Amino acid sequence: MLVHAFKYALVGIVNTAITLAIIFALIYWCSAPPLVANAIGYLIGFANSFVLSRTWIFRSQAPVSRSVARFVTSAMIAYGLNAAIIHFGMVYAGASKYWIQLAGAVVYTTSLFLLSRAWAFADDDPRKAVQ
C-alpha cells in the first residue's frame, strides 16, 4: 500500500502541474474565460488522473467501462466528503474558511485513494485482495 500511496502522491503533483498549465495557457493564449479554462483544465486533469491511476498506480485489469464508472462515483463520494467537512467545519466548529479547505483536501485525497485502491480499480480477484 505504501508504494501505491507514493505513486498516487506523485501523480497528484504531476496532475496538478498539468491542470494548472492548461488553465493558464487557455486564459493567456486563448483568452478563455477563467471558469471555462478551469473546467477544461480539470476535465483533462481528471482524465489524466484516471489513466495514470488505472495503468500505473493500480495496474488494473478490470474492464475500462467499469473502472470509469467506479472512478467517477469514487470522486463524487470523495467530493461529497470534502464538502461535508468544509460545511460542518465552518458552520459547527467555526473553522476558518481558508484553513478548513486543507482539511477538506486531505479528506478528498485520502478517500479517493482508498476508494480507488479498494473499489474503482479492483480486479475483483479474491487472490489479489490478499497481496
Query: Termini separation (Å)?
Result: 10 Å
Number of strands: 0
Beta percentage is under 5%
The share of residues in helices is over 70%
Shape call: globular
Number of helices: 5
Unreliable sequence segments: none
> What is the string of SSEs from the N terminus onward?
HHHHH
Q: Please give the largest β-sheet.
A: none
- Number of individual domains: 2
Q: What gyration radius follows from the Cα positions, in whole Å?
A: 16 Å
Structural class of the helices, strands and pairings?
mainly alpha
Q: State mean pLDDT (0 to 100 scale).
A: 91
Short description:
82% of the residues lie in helices and 0% in strands.
Can you tell me about this structure?
With 131 residues, the chain is mostly helical. The protein folds into 2 domains: 1-57; 63-131, no CATH class. Helices cover 82% and strands 0% of the residues. It contains 5 helices and no strands. The protein has helices at residues 2-30, 34-57, 64-91, 99-120, 126-129. The longest helix has 29 residues, at 2-30. It is globular, with a radius of gyration of 16 Å. The model has no long low-confidence stretch (mean pLDDT 91).
Task: Please give the structural blueprint.
Blueprint: H1 2-30, H2 34-57, H3 64-91, H4 99-120, H5 126-129
Helix pairs in contact: 1-2, 3-4
Task: Pick out its properties.
globular, 82% helix, 131 residues, 0% strand, single chain, mainly alpha, 2 domains, 5 helices
